[in-house]
Design goal:
alpha+beta, 6 helices, about 30% strand, disordered N terminus
């Protein structure tokens, strides 16, 4: 059964791109614009997320066999990635299962390519900052963007507090998914 907390990163990525472009603008000069864009790509904005290239204990591209305690979720029509929910108790995410109950691992062609977690905002924000550094903060959201990996932390109000959401994804896989979608659309339009 598909969880109601399933997450597609594409709408968030469009929002992030818009926010990043607006945050990197400087009306003083073209040189100021170039300096702001360059500094936005330097550590602490994306260095740690790129050096980890995944999450603690797992790097993007690892085969499914490198993981334990994952349960395959049902696929919806059109899904190209396999989605697994984590049922284990190892590592920070396993030990904090009470605070962060929804933890999903995504695989494309049998290789790890994305992680998504939903839970207690304070716990998840603290762990994301510990893993990736301060990032680019646009309160209450944070972004980390490197050449190989991207992480997005967002928060929203819920009935009795705040809920945090953390997505960590492989940028090469993100590009591969765009190419696959373009090829699919071309094939549909050719018919």
């Amino acid at each position: 059964m598909r969880s109601s907390t399933f997450f597609s990163p594409l709408p968030v990525l469009a929002l992030v791109a818009t926010m990043l472009l607006s945050s990197c603008s400087d009306s003083t000069s073209e040189a100021g614009n170039a300096n702001n864009r360059a500094s936005a790509l330097e550590f602490p904005f994306g260095g740690k997320v790129d050096s980890m290239n995944g999450i603690a204990g797992h790097t993007f591209g690892q085969p499914l066999s490198a993981f334990s305690d994952l349960e395959l979720m049902d696929k919806n029509p059109g899904d190209v990635m396999d989605t697994y929910i984590y049922r284990g108790t190892k590592g920070w995410f396993g030990k904090h299962k009470q605070e962060v109950p929804s933890q999903f691992y995504y695989f494309l062609d049998g290789k790890f390519c994305q992680f998504y977690a939903v839970g207690n905002a304070e716990a998840l924000r603290t762990e994301a900052t510990y893993l990736f550094g301060p990032g680019l903060e646009q309160s209450p959201n944070r972004f980390w963007d490197g050449p190989r990996a991207r992480a997005i932390y967002s928060e929203q109000a819920v009935a009795f507090g705040r809920e945090g959401r953390l997505t960590v994804l492989s940028k090469p896989v993100e590009e591969e998914l765009k190419v696959r979608e373009q090829n699919r659309l071309k094939a549909e339009n050719a018919e």
